[in-house]
Amino acid sequence: MAGISVGMSCPACGGALNIEEGETTSICTYCNSTLFVEGDKGVTTIAFRQKLLKDGATASSQSWWKHGWKARDLKHVGKITEVYPIYLPFWKTTTRVAGWICGYNERRRTDSKGNTTVERIPKEESVFQDYVYSEIACDPGDLGIRTMKNFMGETGFTDFEMIPTFEATTSKDDAVSRSKNDALAKARAQAHVEHVTFEKVHVFSKALTMIYYPIWVVRYNYRERMYMDTVDGVTGQVLSGRAPGDPMFQSVAVTAGTFFGGLAAFAGILLGKNDYRIAAAGVVVGALILLATYRFFRYGSEIVQGEFKEKKSLLGGADLKQLTNVTKQLGGLR
């Protein structure tokens, strides 16, 4: 019995193609283009086996309490109230990027007289690499987990009705689309072509897998307030969590940050009497120190680790933009 074939057109020249069922590649007989065929083959679903027991998850969580800027008495006052396992669904994709990125990089040179020249260095980079991408396939709520951190472990096909899981609610098509965009962005960054004048790259998905990954959720009490963290069920590492900060650390940070920030700004102005760039650098460094101090003081009452949407970074985008504008203004004062 003959296999099923599908009639398609070549995207390069428009010629007719005849592709047999199950084929993933085809060569156009008209323009000799190599084509990659992507079809709806379904999604392979696997699960990582739980390696960490409840006692191990508890120990990992308590060890996490002892490190960082957390409350110093957390390891003595904190009391674990609940520990339970859960499997989270993740999309894992392997995406290949192949092609060429051409353009040029600029190099600025300043001679002894202060004259600046810009040299254009042509650059042509070939791209041929596979990229692995992952994203959670459900709403993680307040767990602070959005991507897989570990891809090593014992896997197998599992009866998912017998294990506690979150239901997958996101689209595989959306996951594939985001993985392609992520792979293309990484390929462009790795090419290190500052100014692109020509680009011919192909991005296609090689594999798509639904992975159910085990984690432990640990909830604990500290001075009548509830906190939580999550522990990797394979590696035993803490993936995310919230913990109380320490007022003493906040006070020390404010004192030290104010001192060193002011000192850096003063030193820059003092040494930059004849060179505005030194003065500008000193002011910017001082402002960065003060900004970091302020943000630590403001958000240091709760230490957050993980991929929470509302997680505050040390330097916000708006703050950096303001500092950039200040630097430009200072740079214009000659």
Overall 3D form: flat
Order of helical and strand elements: EEEEEHHEEEHEEEHHEH
Largest β-sheet summary: 8 strands, mixed
Q: Show unreliable segments.
A: 1-6, 313-320, 326-334
Query: How many helices does DSSP assign?
Result: 6
Averaged pLDDT: 82
How helical, in percent, are the residues?
Answer: 25-40%
What's the structural domain tally?
3
Structural class: alpha+beta
Number of strands: 12
What is the strand and helix layout of this fold?
Layout: E1 5-9, E2 16-20, E3 25-27, E4 34-36, E5 44-48, H1 54-65, H2 74-77, E6 79-110, E7 116-136, E8 155-156, H3 172-191, E9 195-222, E10 225-232, E11 238-244, H4 247-271, H5 276-299, E12 302-305, H6 317-331
Parallel strand pairs: 5-9
Antiparallel strand pairs: 1-2, 3-4, 5-8, 6-7, 6-9, 9-10, 10-11, 11-12
Characterization of the model:
This protein has 334 residues and is α+β, with helices and mostly antiparallel strands. The chain folds into 3 domains: 5-36; 44-243, no CATH class; 248-331. It is 30% helix and 37% strand. Helix 4 runs antiparallel to helix 5 (276-299) and helix 5 runs antiparallel to helix 6. The longest helix is centred in the last third of the chain and has 25 residues, at 247-271. The model is unreliable at 1-6, 313-320 and 326-334 (pLDDT under 50).
